[in-house]
Known about the structure:
The complex is a heterodimer. Helix content of chain A is about 0%, strand content about 45%. By secondary structure, chain A is mainly β. In chain A, the strands form two sheets. Chain A has a five-stranded mixed sheet, with no helix packed on it. By secondary structure, chain B is mainly β. Chain B is built from no helices and eleven strands. Chain B has strands at about 5, 10-15, 20-25, 30-40, 40-50, 55, 65-70, 75-80, 85-95, 100-105, 105-110. At the A-B interface, strand 4 of A face strand 4, strand 5, strand 9 and strand 10 of B.
Amino acid sequence: xxxxxxxxxxxxxxxxxxxxxxxxxxxxxxxxxxxxxxxxxxxxxxxxxxxxxxxxxxxxxxxxxxxxxxxxxxxxxxxxxxxxxxxxxxxxxxxxxxxxxxxxxxxxxxx
Amino acid sequence: xxxxxxxxxxxxxxxxxxxxxxxxxxxxxxxxxxxxxxxxxxxxxxxxxxxxxxxxxxxxxxxxxxxxxxxxxxxxxxxxxxxxxxxxxxxxxxxxxxxxxxxxxxxxxxxx
Lengths: 111, 112
């Protein structure tokens, strides 16, 4: 699976949009971009995934650049409960369910 | 639907002992994966099962093993426990291979 690069930490004001970037410059054509988050000591929570089109669900939006070398996860109105470590993962759709987690971005939402 | 459940939630064992952890996937999910999380190594993939067959295995010694039952429930076993096996063990389930995975709360294992 392609490696991803994320900033180790970010701050966001409560109520504002949180934009979490991810670089995956070596992504290949059949690899999806997945986002998970982990709130302290809990199991990771699936957020969203996409291949090349932008995606939106009730939790977040995923913006993937046209060349697919980077993406941004957007939490439109961050709350204190969104404080967590966010993981960007690139996964080969045909390679089973193994997820390779990197260090992630620790997002701190502040009042 | 109920989420992924893992039992026990907390466990304390002594070096040299063995341990069995259990995972019940979301109803209808047929794939189960296991991960180990430690402060030093982060989240690492252990293995995945689908239709009672191990489909993929991470880079862990043979002391780590698992199985999946016909009802999709899964167990993992660690034999001859070492201090370094202290970790949060996470189970994730998905409808099938290559679908998004949903994680359980984990089992926190402490080896003394």
